[in-house]
Write a structure and sequence with these properties.
- It contains nine helices and 19 strands.
- By secondary structure, the chain is of the alpha/beta class.
- The chain has two domains: 2-147, 3-Layer(bba) Sandwich (Glucose Oxidase, domain 1), CATH 3.50.30.20; 157-383, Class I glutamine amidotransferase (GATase) domain (Rossmann fold, 3-Layer(aba) Sandwich).
- The strands form three sheets. Strands 10-12-11-13-14-19-18-17-15-16 form a ten-stranded mixed β-sheet, with helices on both faces.
- The radius of gyration is 21 Å and the shape is globular.
Length: 398
């Protein structure tokens, strides 16, 4: 079955359909990760976007039940050069095409993804319409792409956040725990104790592996819906605050910036990732802006100014914090070495820091996992934590 991708500037790509039969509209971005397509398509930060993978062969390892970052695919459509018809992985439960079809997500294969990527790099991200219905004329799809409202200023967080508070208690399994080169992997995930420090994690579209890493570093985690007020969070008496990744324009969630502004005034240790980083920027009075084609992939080089080293990072965002609008107490700690944009901040007068990239490495390298250890140490110091031997925490999820 044929499929067609029509960009808002009139560029047309013809290919083969896979996944679900559908006609959809979204923003097209490209991802440079060589592996981890399952984590990419289930990342809530991709809500509203069609993802073009630059790696030419996708689907080789199928899909399994363990590697999802949320409970369903979050992308609008999937664009690949070639979709593998054969699955070669002992952990696979189904094919990529079957998984997308089951969740109503269309895909297109057989197109020149290199040409599409180069086009997006030249002109910037574009709106597009994708259809698996060959009878739909190009003019109709072009109209859909050009009249789509886009993502700027929209609140996509409400489409992916949880509906109520819940506890998370599962850490990273021993065989998946990041360790230094040559060191043995732990036999099992660490035991979480009832007296462990409590953090509240705002769910703006939080990924499962972020929750696992927070738990593995000895923190009890309560996940809160995005619209939870500062007063509701403080009533839980947390020892720290975590602000998650999420989709879309940070300017579309002013309620989040307002809550974080109040929380920052309380002096609790706070750590933000991706959208959480941008929300901290807005809470400090800074502005954000849209990048030409964003950062999407597992190979983005970031300079850690504090420790004078370079981390290879996983990233997925279309917006950045405007350095020129930051207050004097905000210090830039990380920079993207491709374009110089702000990749991390810390405050000089409060235990607050944040990064634009994804240290949970899902998908991606493990260079930045130490940030979870840094946050956990800050929280434990704030709480005056001394571990005692008690049974593990009961959980609702994880």
């Amino acid at each position: 079955m044929s499929a067609r991708l029509v960009l808002q500037d009139g560029t047309v790509f013809e290919g083969e359909a896979f996944g679900a039969p559908a006609t959809v509209v979204g923003e097209v971005v490209f991802n440079t990760s060589l592996t981890g397509y399952q984590e990419v398509i289930t990342d809530p930060s991709y809500r509203g976007q069609m993802v073009c993978m630059t790696a030419p062969h996708i689907g080789n390892t199928g899909v399994n039940a363990e590697d999802v970052e949320s409970d369903r695919p979050q992308i609008t459509a999937f664009i690949v050069r070639e979709i593998s018809q054969t699955v070669s992985n002992w952990r696979a439960n189904e094919t990529l095409a079957g998984y997308l079809a089951r969740h109503g997500i269309p895909g297109i294969s057989g197109i020149d993804t290199r040409a599409l990527t180069r086009h997006l790099r030249t002109v910037g991200v574009l709106h597009a319409a994708l259809s698996t219905d060959a009878s739909k004329p190009i003019e109709e799809l072009l109209h859909l792409a050009r009249t789509w409202e886009g993502l700027d200023g929209r609140d996509l967080v409400q489409e992916v956040t949880c509906g109520e508070l819940y506890n998370w208690g599962a850490g990273t399994a021993g065989e998946w725990t990041p360790v230094p080169a040559g060191a043995p992997a732990p036999d099992a995930a660490p035991t979480l104790h009832l007296d462990a420090p409590l953090i509240v994690a705002y769910d703006f579209g939080i990924k499962h592996n972020i929750l696992r890493r927070l738990t593995s570093h000895g923190l009890r985690v309560v996940v809160a819906p995005a619209a939870t007020t500062a007063q509701e969070v403080l009533a839980l008496q947390p020892d720290g605050i975590f602000l998650s990744n999420g989709p879309g324009d940070p300017a579309g969630v002013p309620y989040a910036a307002a809550a974080v502004r109040d929380l920052l005034a309380n002096g609790l240790p706070t750590f933000g990732i991706c959208l959480g980083h941008q929300i901290i920027g807005l809470a400090l009075g800074a502005r954000t802006y849209k990048l030409k084609f964003g950062h999407h992939g597992g190979n983005q080089p970031v300079s850690d100014v504090d420790s004078t080293n370079v981390q290879i990072t996983a990233q997925n965002h279309n917006y950045a914090v405007d350095e020129a609008t930051l207050p004097a107490n905000a210090v830039v700690t990380h920079r993207n070495l491709n374009d110089g944009t702000v990749e991390g901040l810390r405050l000089t007068d409060r235990p607050v820091f944040c990064v634009q990239y994804h240290p949970e490495a899902s998908p991606g390298p493990h260079d930045a996992d130490l940030l979870f250890a840094r946050f956990a140490a800050m929280v434990k110091e704030h709480a005056g934590y001394r571990q005692i031997s008690v049974p593990p925490v009961g959980i609702e999820r994880g």
